[in-house]
Amino acid sequence: MQTIDQLQNGSDIRGVALASKDSEPVNLTPEIAGRIAAAFVYWLKESKRIVSPRVCIGRDSRLSGEALSDGIVRGLRSQSAQVFDFGLASTPAMFVCTKPETLNADGAIMITASHLPFNRNGMKFFVKEGGLDKSEIKQILKFVEILQSNNYVDNSFRKLDYMSAYAESLVTYIREKTAETKPLSGFHILVDAGNGSGGFFVDKVLITLGADTSGSVYLDPDGRFPNHVPNPENVEIMRDFGKIVVKEKADLGIMFDTDVDRAALVDFDGTPIARNRLIALISENILFEYPGSTIVTDSVTSASLKRFIESRGGVHHRFQRGYNNVIKEAKRLNAAGVDCALAIETSGHCALRENDFLDDGAFLVIKLLILYTRLRKEGKTIAGVLSDYREAAESLELRPKFIREDFKGYGVKLLADFEQYVKKVPGWELELPNYEGVRVRCSKDAGDGWALMRLSLHDPELPINIESDAIGGAQIIKDKIIAFLSHYDVMLPE
Fold first, then answer.
1. Rounded-to-integer distance, Cα 430 and Cα 438, Å
2. Residue 317: in which H helix or E strand, if any?
3. What is the DSSP letter of 423?
């Protein structure tokens, strides 16, 4: 029998909220969500010493969102919280509402499961300092057991159109930075919101700034996600959107994920600007504003990206997978006196120091639109900026599974053995510094690229990323890795 503790997914709550043909048992009901929300208020009272916390709640377009929201509101009010319900919202807006210059909320909850299937849902939590980490989520789940009842308390409850105020702040920002009221006049810009929460960006931001948005797709919220899963990291989805951008003869395309904490672009010719290319483009902007800044990324970014950042005078700090890990490292570096203005993961989670290291897809797009307007005035293009960023000729991802129960300790030993193995392979060397797994630099005669072997954050898997600048090079690197793994208790890929 599954427990509430098993709903924790790192710093989020994730579960099955709707019955489906897959027969997955529903484990995130309105009642359970309400109990977790009540425990969140109890945690706020205990950790922040607040008698009657002000808590905001929002949701993405998922079918289960309204029912979960009702349960969460009951849970919040059972602990005497003052509740502000935003209805359909974006995840970043839920953090912004805690700032003193906005609603000055003590906490916020976003009901979302990002790009997971339609029957899933979850909860993300924010306080004034940012999103909660996994240790704080554990504390909240422990309080669930303490709070035996969920008795209704008739406390303050208001519904607010907060997304209009949030959008207005984005409009004000770009107007101040460009010194223009309608800086996007003459631009044809499309949005693919994937039937998630990002449709607001068209009417409330782009059109207000003067852009032509005709031809934009999937703007209406629909929790069935009938057209595609809102995931800007998906290569096929980005390619399809690129075809729409070309067909509509647009200057630029913008894609958001379900809850708008991630985004990616498509250039006028249909070229996707996601993952490493997206990091390169925002790095161009950041290093223009903050010369010499350190840029923190996750561990799987390419060798070409490192060269790109360094060619712009920046410092590339490749850290660990997980957007919270990347953001925490950027904060740590700044606290230690290192100038670090950007933390970004290849998934599209991008957090900027000037925005309190909030991973906000809409703010990322605003920064890129400011860059885009500057480039146009200078007679330059995105393609021109990225001309010296070279994609790898080949890339592979392998995810062999451990075939033993004690995989965590076993995996640590396997990585230690792999590190010694690397030192014996001609043309291979360890890439240092390295903060996750074992990263290998491979010479031209030994694969002409790199590989990273690491342990999965949650699953009994051994993710392996390989890139090569030569056709056939990825296979050379893969063969050497498979030869090593053949002596271990893992299910080898074909």
1. 7
2. strand 315-318
3. H
pLDDT score recorded for residue 154: 61
| Cβ neighbours of residue 146 closer than 8 Å, sequence gap 6 or more | 39, 42
The pLDDT of residue 152: 54
Helix spans in 248-296 (H): 275-289
- Write down the pTM of the prediction: 0.94
**Could you tell me if 466 and 472 are in contact, meaning their C-beta atoms sit under 8 angstroms apart?**
no
> Distance between CA atoms of 108 and 10, rounded to whole angstroms?
18
Q: Which residues are known catalytic residues?
A: 114
Give, as one character, the DSSP assignment of residue 332: H
Which stretches of 12-105 are assigned E, i.e. beta strand? 12-16, 54-59, 82-88
Distance between CA atoms of residues 227 and 199, nearest Å: 14
The residue whose two tokens read 């309080």 is 143
Using the structure block, give the residue that is written with the tokens 């307007």: 373
Residues (pLDDT < 50) of the chain are 1
Q: How many Cα atoms sit within 13 Å of 221 on the Cβ side?
A: 19
What amino acid is encoded at 416 in this protein? A
How far apart (Å, rounded) are the C-alpha atoms in residues 319 and 194? 30
Query: What is the tens place of the pLDDT at every residue in 26-79?
Result: 999 999 999 999 999 999 999 999 999 999 999 999 999 999 999 999 999 999
DSSP secondary structure, 165-196, as one string: HHHHHHHHHHHHHHT-SSTTTT-BEEEE-TTS
Strands (E), 386-447: 394-398, 401-402, 428-430, 438-442
First to last CA, the chain: 35
| Cα(196)–Cα(261) distance, integer angstroms | 11
- CB-CB contact of 217 with 245 (8 Å): no
Tokens 């490292």 correspond to 329
Distances (CA, A) of 114 to 14, 119, 138, 193, 252: 10, 12, 21, 13, 24
Closest to 209 in 3D by CA, of 244, 161, 176: 176
Looking at residue 146, what is its pLDDT? 86
